[in-house]
Design a protein that fits this description.
heterodimer, A: 111 residues, mainly beta, six-stranded mixed β-sheet, 0% helix, globular, B: 113 residues, seven-stranded mixed β-sheet, four-stranded antiparallel β-sheet, 50% strand
């Protein structure tokens, strides 16, 4: 079974704090790394799909980096807001296979 | 509107009965997936299909079956052989390509009593 690890499991920050999460994965047969945001009572929605070593992607206050050689990706949130509260999932896509998800990092932002 | 639809949202079944969860998409996606979520666990892959009439087992396929007779549909049957079927089930679809994201249904919460 492929192992995609996310840390921390949960995180509580104050509004305005910046934070980051880690996704670790086996680097063999790498094809793509996905990040999703899953808010309560909604479906997961894609944030980023990253394919190249050294990729950096940004969407508003959220950004992500990718290191395929050492098998990790970081997700950063700058100036957290209460609406950022959600579970953040990363998923590994190896060539020819399905998306395998980590257990997620649950972020809670207090105002 | 294009999207992926799961039905029903909530499902109750008696122990020992088979039950089928529906997943339909009109996004013209080739690949479809079934995941299961339990408390404290992430999304675990049950089955996936990358093309019509073909599907592959995921990490926890035992006690489940699927079919992919049409591109739009990927129903999941939870059989009586599944030892712990009560869970939240999520269906997803995705088009071909390295950079393509997955789209998810709203999920079905199955409770077996």
């Amino acid at each position: 079974i492929l192992n995609v690890e996310q840390s921390p499991q949960s995180l509580h920050v104050q509004e305005g704090d910046s934070t980051n999460f880690t996704c670790s994965f086996p680097s063999s047969n790498f094809y793509a790394l996905h990040w999703y945001r899953w808010e309560t009572a909604k479906s997961p929605e894609a944030l980023f799909v990253m394919t190249l070593n050294g990729d950096e992607k940004k969407k508003g206050r959220i950004s992500a980096t990718l290191n395929t050689k050492e098998g990790y990706s970081y997700l950063y949130i700058k100036g957290s807001q209460p609406e950022d509260s959600a579970t953040y999932l990363c998923a590994l896509n190896q060539a020819g296979t399905a998306l395998i998800f980590g257990k997620g990092t649950t972020l809670s932002v207090s105002s | 509107d294009g999207g992926i639809t799961q039905s029903p949202k909530y499902l109750f079944r008696k122990e020992g009965q088979n039950v089928t969860l529906s997943c339909e998409q009109n996004l013209n996606h080739d690949a479809m997936y079934w995941y299961r979520q339990d408390p404290g666990q992430g999304l675990r892959l049950i089955y996936y299909s990358q093309i019509v009439n073909d599907f592959q087992k995921g990490d926890i396929a035992e006690g489940y079956s699927v079919s992919r007779e049409k591109k739009e549909s990927f129903p999941l049957t939870v059989t009586s052989a599944q030892k712990n079927p009560t869970a939240f089930y999520l269906c997803a679809s995705r088009s071909r390509g390295q950079n393509t994201e997955a789209f998810f249904g709203q999920g079905t919460r199955l409770t077996v009593v």
